[in-house]
Amino acid sequence: MLEVQNAKKYFGGVKAVDNVSIQVKKSSITGLIGANGAGKTTLFNMISGFIPLTAGTVIYEGEDITNQPAYKISTKGIVRTFQTPLGFPRMTVMENMLVFAKNRNAGIFTAIKTSKKVTPLEEEYIERARKILKDVGLGNKEDAWVSDLSAGELKILEFARPLMADPHIFLLDEPAAGINPANLNSLVTLIKDLRNKGYTFLIVDHNLKFIMNICDYIYVMADGKLIFEGLPDEVANADCVIESYIGKKKTEDTVSN
Amino acid sequence: MLTGTALFLSSILTLAAIYAVIALALNLEAGVDGLWDLGVVSFVAVGAYTYTMLTVSPASAGQSYIMGFGLPMWVGVLAAGIAGSIVAFLIGKPTLKLKNEYFLITTFAFAEVIRQILTNERWLSNGVAGVYNLAQPFKTYFTPSVYPYILLLLLVIIVFIVYVVVHRLTYSTFGRSLKALRENEPLALTAGIRPDRFHIRAFVIAGFFAGTAGAFYVWYSTVITPSLFTSDITFFVWMAIVIGGLANNKGAIVGSVIFVLAGESLRFLDLGSGFAVRMASMKIAILGLILIAILKWRPQGILPEKKVKFSNSSKNS
Amino acid sequence: MESIVYGIVTASIILLGSVGFSMTLNAENFINIAHGQMLLLCAYITLFLNAYMSIVPAAIIGILVTGVFGVLFYKVFYRPIKKRGAMVLLFTSVGLAYVINGVVGTIFGTTTFAYKIPNVKEIIPGMTPYQLLIIIAAICSTLFLHYFLTKTKIGKAIRAVSENSDLAKTRGIDTKRTSNYVWFIASSLAGLSGVFLGVIGSIHLEMGWNQILIILAATVLGGLGSIYGVMAASVVIGLSMELGVLMIPSYYRLAIAFAIIIIVLLIKPDGLQSLWNKSGKRVA
Questions:
Q1: Model-level pTM?
Q2: Which pick of A104, A179, B1, B16 has the fewest CB atoms within 10 Å?
């Protein structure tokens, strides 16, 4: 479904991403792990169109989307989240949802002519947003400022928003960062639920337990290079992975998983 | 005495109404969209000059300016708006891609350059001498003593129209996308919103209304000189929307009225004739203090940005 | 030749004003519109003192007083609202600019003034000892600032805070103290620039506004907040303004400065610094 071929990104002389190829299969949850500075987020930014590739190609559903602008890529059904989910702080939860609805190209002159506060089309989107919010457990928050939400609620809103636009694949940048264990479980359930509904995921995270627990297939990066790929069990037992990324302390964690 | 005060008050309110039109325009681009435009006076100046040059009679002896077609006023107003939009497009196209700070400085710079051109190119605008005795709308139908109220009424109607248009835009999908860009541009990108396209639309619409405000300003002052269009106007309008409440359209109007009243009411202080020249300085010092105080104690302004609620409008399902 | 001298003198005055502006931009991350009024403030304080003493002691006292005012303004107006972000700070500085300008105007009126300074002969055509002094003072200030920022402990701390204030805090740098230094130095340099403007020209209420526009131009051209970039940009703008008037009418001096930045921004959106500072890109 999504394929990155020989992606390279050089910042000056630094090879942030060096010849990385990955594949994300439809309805899978694919993980990408690596230490800080391994180049995971850079790879993410290149796929989602936030920074240009130095070399290489990104192919989505057979179409070459390399270096297309971010706003264009997102309309193809590829959505990404950010490490720190801020949302649109001074807008309500409902407004946050509606921003992601697909009707934003309604013209300026139409807007000037329309005296109704809510158009029938928007009515539909509002209903849809309510349903999504209810499903993810934010049903009672639609009129709250996003800046008043808790960190956990923000994380959940981060998933809820793009659902408005019928995405096909989610790119999640450290979804488990800064989340307490209780919320983490509901996050795992949410992701697995969505996967069962046919959505695809590519997840970058530090939390090894979380990644091992949730992913079907895992890529491991270090210093901009891909050093290993395989099923969760294989990754857990690969020497090079343990050496380069997990270190001594976390080994027990992994084994107990 | 009473009629004197009433006349004075209506004159102040007319000025406030003109500020309100510019403030509503600025509020759309700066409050709803987050553009730091320090050059909004460019649109006002270009609009005012376009209006004047199209509606006056040809330059007489000793004057010099282009055009002078003697066109009807409504054509002039429309052209003023269009000229404002064009200037906005020309300024916005190259600069809206830049960082906020660069945009701020470039818009500020453009406004100064435009004023200098109007000051120094005599063939274009009759230079510092300006153009005097400009006509006012519907003036011939009324006696001079009631005309100021008619002008005020006309401007109140105009403010209302502009308010309705800007209000609808603010709460439309378009306005929501602008707000999204203001709040979090990277996230807005992932929603498929194209920043440059939305910014330039907001900027051009603001240019249109600020341009028409230039024409209204000419109605009010009946003269036009480049010195009317210093960056003070930009800052004053910014102050008005900050005082009234950024991104709140009623706030833009309230802020304009309060701002103009606060400034002009100082005229009532009688501090002796020698002090008259310094009054202007004292006025801006006090306005500056008001701005600082509002930002410190009420940074959301008098009327903070409204929460958009949908729960009442469609509860029936 | 005269134009070149004028150009260098103008450049020196712009440089003194812009360097301070960049320091506060770096340290506090906002555009301080009131910086232009610090030039005005110092010019008028010196004017007031000049009635009782000769220009040199008057200017020295004026500059020190302006520096103190800078620190005071920071403590009273900016620091308490620092957390509210660049927009609120920016407009607070607009408010403060109007307050300073208004108070000075209320006291001194709208008359144009000049300092009482002895008449002197030109050393070479187009250059009086005053102009020489201005150039020397600008060079000395630049060298002093360079030494201060790179060699002294407090200077290094200021640079650390500019680059990453959170990190600096965790490393135990007292950011309050560095801020005081930044505002004192920035305001004094602005003051010096203001006095020089008065010496070569006149003292009037518009000087602060005119100068902040040129300072903004130099800052953009130098690449926001790069102190060395701004120094180079001041020279470019000063020279081109004065040499430009050979070809274009003199009332377009300011327009020349802006034309330059508009062109530069369109070609190199990061300002002049990107020409030599490639590392700027690596961070992105």
A1: 0.88
A2: B1
